[in-house]
């Protein structure tokens, strides 16, 4: 059996994903920026922290007019211990606790972090107080972490943001969500066979035992029936342009540095499905349905779809419409 | 209401499915379920799947999944970005409309391709919670402690649950983690992973796929010697903010259980989608079932194919009823952090 190929893949929004927060969340985050912890009073008198635009029980809307100060001290209702902080994710680089903390004057708890040296320093019911960041931006991490607090001790001052006067600034209207997920994706059996074929300058497809229909590339099945394409079939590296489009948008493909270029579906000789590729070697206005093309292979072949750089006209007579009409 | 039955079930698991892509992983399971259903593939009226794009970091993963079921000539199809059990719910509704008499339901996922504990963070509140990156294990641990504090139960109770799951898993071919000789004492000697949870309290990362074929009324009776009827099915959701919920119990499960009629007869077997040991205890209480009949397969602590393990709960109950080992049972499926959303399905033999 072919050893499956693995590929690294990351999911990330460059620069972060911009979210507008609306008036209620915005008011709360503005408070954090300015060193205030607030909740919103609900119709039944309970105070919701952190505030949402609605009562989580009745769905009745909440109002910025009903904001009230809470805390800053609070009580830990539950906690869990993080022994190994996640790099580039967690806000502390040493072990800490996640905790549900109910600020004084609130009826609900907010999820946040408690910074103590070890789990032995945590207990349900313990009293904690925010340790504010100096550089606050209007986000939930403006509280760097909560720390143990003894009732009666002075409330620590909120550090001023250097060179920042809240009077000169509008309320927070948005946040930027960053984050990145890393994957290692397996191509699986059929796609690995196809990719390894490219490294040898071959296009390997497959068909189901009970069918004459050949799929190249195959993801492992005949998609019309779900039957595994267990019979390996090599198809030719030439075919017919079934349909195409002219691309005038720059930067979409590193295989086509210049616009305009043509991308097309190619019905490979010996296959029963179409194959995506770029058409070069002629002017884009010469590209047409039925045009016969052949793969332009890279000199340094690899088990990678980029082994076929583009498709070029062969100069043969165009295929008759009947030859490809079932593949449009 | 039409009578709808589970007429076949198949599933597979792997700790890390490297040899096959998603389509190749689904194919054997779907083929086995269709073959066992006695209904020809072309005759199945509706197809519905559950999957999660973030598991592979790309959009529309379910579209590729369709290569596994055969979608030509075009089929009636739908998809949920949830466990396959919610796809089963949609299929059950579709059959209730009278438009179709049968459905293929499947769920699949390969969480081993990324860090599933971290991937699940993306489902949380993006303003207040996700920026702090609590994993799904951290969220579960917060619920575990809240439950232990309120119930008077201890880490030993969690270890007893985990040990039993390992022992029961020993008789489940699909179990990823199993140990016929597991004891609570041995598990309590393990280090904490997310205090108060140890590794044995947390599901093993599991790639997998599951498929069920549903059939209605006379069709079910014709193709199945002993149709396993869905007597009630309901799902309920709670607020997403953990701080706005009572984490010591699962009210949404309790409501869904009443709506599905769990208490209307004896429960011989229950399979609950408890991905953490404390959830077994919370869910048994919410369902009102004897913990002794819960998760004879070992449950998700033995194998937890993400996006298929919920459908497997329904299948595991149905399998036991179809075999005559039980007559009436309940399956539970969850979604969201710390048992936020819960589906309850009551099954009974003909």
Which descriptors apply to this entry?
heterodimer; A: 328 residues; mainly beta; five-stranded antiparallel beta sheet; 3 helices; 8% helix; B: 350 residues; alpha/beta; ten-stranded mixed beta sheet; two-stranded antiparallel sheet; 12 strands
Rg calculated over all Cα atoms of chain A: 31 Å
The largest sheet of chain B, given as strand count, sense and whether it forms a barrel, is:
10 strands, mixed
Rg of chain B, nearest Å: 19 Å
Helicity of chain B, as a percent range? 25-40%
Largest sheet report of chain A: 5 strands, antiparallel
Please count the helical segments of chain A.
3
For this entry, what is the oligomeric state of its chains?
Answer: heterodimer
Total number of β-strand segments of chain A?
21
Identify the strand order in the major beta sheet of chain A: 8-7-6-9-10
The termini of chain A sit apart by: 34 Å
Percent helix of chain A, as a range, is under 10%
Largest interface (CB within 8 Å) is between: A-B, 66 and 63 residues
Tally of separate helices of chain B: 11
């Amino acid at each position: 059996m072919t050893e499956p190929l693995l590929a690294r893949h990351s999911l990330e929004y460059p620069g972060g994903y911009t979210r507008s927060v609306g008036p209620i969340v915005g008011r709360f985050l503005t408070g954090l920026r300015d060193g205030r912890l607030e909740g919103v009073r609900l119709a039944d008198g309970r105070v919701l922290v952190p505030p949402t635009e609605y009562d989580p029980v009745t769905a009745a809307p909440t109002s910025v007019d009903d904001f009230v100060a809470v805390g800053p001290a609070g009580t830990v209702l539950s906690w869990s211990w993080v022994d190994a902080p996640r790099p580039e994710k967690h806000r502390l680089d040493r072990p800490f606790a996640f905790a549900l903390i109910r600020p004084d004057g609130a009826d609900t708890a907010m999820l946040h972090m408690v910074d103590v040296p070890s789990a032995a320093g945590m207990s349900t019911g313990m009293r904690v107080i925010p340790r504010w960041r100096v550089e606050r931006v209007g986000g939930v991490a403006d509280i760097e972490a909560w720390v143990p607090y003894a009732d009666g001790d002075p409330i620590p001052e909120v550090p001023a943001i250097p060179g920042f006067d809240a009077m000169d600034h509008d309320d927070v209207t948005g946040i930027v969500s960053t984050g990145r997920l890393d994957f290692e994706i397996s191509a699986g059996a059929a796609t690995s066979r196809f990719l390894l074929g490219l490294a040898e300058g071959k296009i390997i497809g497959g068909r189901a035992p009970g069918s004459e229909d050949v799929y190249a590339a195959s993801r492992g099945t005949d998609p019309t029936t779900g039957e595994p394409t267990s019979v390996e079939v090599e198809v030719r590296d030439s075919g017919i342009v079934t349909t195409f489009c002219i691309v005038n948008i720059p930067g979409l493909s590193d295989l086509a540095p210049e616009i305009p270029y043509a991308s097309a579906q190619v019905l490979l000789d010996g296959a029963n499905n179409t194959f995506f590729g770029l058409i070069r070697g002629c002017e884009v206005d010469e590209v047409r349905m039925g045009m016969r093309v052949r793969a332009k292979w890279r000199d340094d072949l690899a088990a990678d779809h980029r082994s076929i750089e583009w498709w070029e006209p062969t100069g043969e007579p165009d295929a008759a419409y009947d030859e490809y009409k079932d593949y449009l | 209401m039409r009578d709808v039955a589970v007429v076949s079930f198949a599933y597979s698991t792997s700790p890390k499915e490297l040899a096959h892509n998603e389509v190749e992983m689904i194919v054997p399971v779907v083929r086995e379920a269709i073959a066992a259903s006695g209904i020809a593939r072309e005759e199945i009226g509706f197809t519905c799947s559950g999957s999660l794009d973030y598991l592979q970091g790309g959009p529309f993963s379910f579209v590729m999944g369709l290569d596994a079921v055969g979608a030509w000539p075009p089929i009636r199809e739908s998809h949920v970005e949830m466990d396959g059990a919610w796809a089963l719910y949609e299929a059950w509704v579709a059959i209730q409309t009278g438009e179709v008499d049968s459905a293929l339901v499947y769920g699949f996922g390969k969480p081993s391709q990324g860090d599933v504990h971290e991937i699940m963070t993306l489902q949380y509140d993006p303003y207040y919670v996700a920026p702090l990156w609590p994993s799904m294990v951290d969220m579960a641990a917060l619920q575990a402690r809240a439950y232990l504090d309120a119930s008077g139960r201890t880490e030993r109770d969690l270890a007893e649950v985990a040990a039993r799951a390992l022992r029961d898993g020993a008789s489940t071919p699909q179990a990823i983690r199993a140990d016929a000789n597991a004891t609570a004492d041995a598990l309590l000697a393990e280090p904490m992973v997310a205090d108060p949870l140890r590794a044995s309290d947390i599901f093993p990362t599991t790639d997998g796929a599951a498929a069920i074929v549903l059939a209605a009324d006379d069709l079910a009776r014709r193709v199945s010697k002993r149709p396993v009827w869905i007597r009630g099915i309901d799902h309920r959701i709670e607020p997403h903010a953990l701080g706005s919920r009572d984490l010591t119990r699962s009210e949404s499960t309790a409501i869904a259980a009443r709506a599905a009629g769990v208490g209307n007869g004896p429960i011989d077997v229950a399979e609950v989608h408890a991905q953490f040991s404390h959830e077994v205890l919370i869910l048994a209480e919410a369902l009102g079932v004897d913990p002794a009949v819960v998760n004879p397969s070992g449950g998700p602590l033995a194998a937890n194919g993400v996006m298929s393990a919920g459908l497997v709960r329904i299948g595991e109950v149905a399998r036991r009823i179809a075999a005559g080992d039980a007559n009436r049972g309940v399956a539970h499926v969850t979604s969201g952090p710390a048992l936020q959303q819960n589906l309850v399905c009551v099954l009974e033999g003909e």
